[in-house]
Amino acid sequence: MKNILEYLEATTYKYPDKVGFTDAKRESTFQETLNNSKKLGTSISKFGSRRAVAIIIDKTCNCIDAMFGSLYAGDYYIVIDVHSPIDRIQTILSTLDNPIIITDNDSVDLARKVKGESQFLIYENAVDTNINQQTLDEIRSCMIDLDIAYLLFTSGSTGIPKGTVISHRALISYVNWVTSEFAFDENTRFGSQTPLYFSMSVTDLYSTVKCGCTYNIIPKQYFSFPVKLVSFLNEKEINTIYWVPTAISILANWKVFDVIKPDYLTKVLFAGEVMPTKQLNYWINNLNGVTYANLFGPTETTDICTFYVVDRKFDDSDSLPIGKHCDNCDVFIVKEDGTEAKPGEEGELYARTTFMAEGYYNNPQKTADAFVQNPLNKAYPERVYKTGDIVKMNDRGEIIYISRKDFQIKRSGYRIELGEIEAGANSVDKVKSCACVYDKGSDCLALIYEGGPKDTDIILSAVRSKVPEYMIPDKVVRIKEMPKNSNGKIDRKYLIKNFKSYVK
What we know:
Helix content is 31%, strand content 26%. By secondary structure, it is α/β, with parallel strands linked by helices. The strands form 6 sheets. A 9-stranded mixed sheet has the order 2-1-10-9-11-12-13-14-15. Strands 16, 17, 19, 20 and 21 form a 5-stranded antiparallel sheet that branches. Strand 3, helix 3 (61-72) and strand 4 (76-79) form a beta-alpha-beta unit. The termini are far apart.
């Protein structure tokens, strides 16, 4: 198998009239999705193969059609966040060397603002193209599994987005693991929360393609109205979700299950940031017969490299393990001196796998810094990925996440893990979410949180129970609502940028 579209074709053959994808305006069967994708592929192919296709379409069935259509044309797609600042969109487009652009009538004004001299297609026109199967077959015959399927742009440390390059082989390998591990099939009904320009979206979208699931796009506004959100889950009979912890915590923070419960849920997966155990316990204590799993990994391993299926009780102040490696994906922990860490010793997590990205688009230096020779192997070339995550192995053989390397700070000669401080604060009953940030200019370490208790002594006491005295924050600041980024996670960069307005 060399192309992810082979799964779409096989699923359409088995379930042509089954609804595969839904949004607020449309339901699309697998046959309709396949036909639309081939029509778009025929239209896009007129501009040549192995090119970047920037998709300026909101998260809808139209966008999904355009993604698959780009692959039929032998190209690779980049889903653009239509709610991003224009400057960011233009920065991404300038990295792509004159991409083909496809948009729809809802986003055409935005596309006109940012397109420059690029080729330009309107979805509603392109989807009327007659399928040229001969052209599509010729394109497929020339493709190999190492051809690029898509790019995902993540925020770089310099503020310039990095385009992570994912091949068909990496995508196929990852999807084979995740669908097998979690037993997805034609009866799986996903409720999709994550944006299509975010690596987590790969899991439920392409599992649907492989297994004939149903992929329901949840209207974004429902996450501001938790009762409506659960009503939507019930209306669509959704039995599987894969959300960021911030989204899962919304239902716990509002104690929504005291009012209404999701009737069909059997699998709750989460990734993208640390899952606060307190909020997870609310789900566990209120819903019966549900499997919970903590998935962990960077965009550079397609989505995930380790996972932990919750198999025991945790106190609210405990941290969930990130578990063990996925099948066909090996991980190991390397200390600062370049040697392998023993159980209990901290180090950086490395991954070696066919899930691994090819590198960063038009960025050889960043690629060379992150995709390196295996430091534990001196005998032959072996490329591995440095995740930048600080972890350790516990006495159960489970990997424990500690912090990002860039969440580490040095202060008064001590190394401080910001994630450990946050874990202590999150255990406080009325803390809904929090982030620990450090302002180097003022040498101030602040814990910023959303929640109830005005008396900071409660939070500081919880933090003191988890960390040594030198890690205690100088300030504890309560705010009305934590800022979120476009992926639905806490926007730490915003907090740092606006540090002085929060910490006075």
